[in-house]
Amino acid sequence: MKKDNSNPLDLENKLYSIEEFGLAIRNKFGGENYISNVILGEMFLAKFPIYSCKIKKPKDHISQKSCGCC
Hey, where are the domains in the chain? Predict the structure, then answer.
């Protein structure tokens, strides 16, 4: 069986707010309770910017060259 590498986090195919994304990361990998979902999501995106394509963008969003989706 061929593994699908396009979604290694196994997230739903939708756009997340940064808080929803942080919660999904916490549910998948765990995390310290004193770190908010927003901070956890931001930390994960700083390490893996390719996942920024999963985040809802504000209207005044400036594209980053490192994500490749926008």
Answer: 12-70
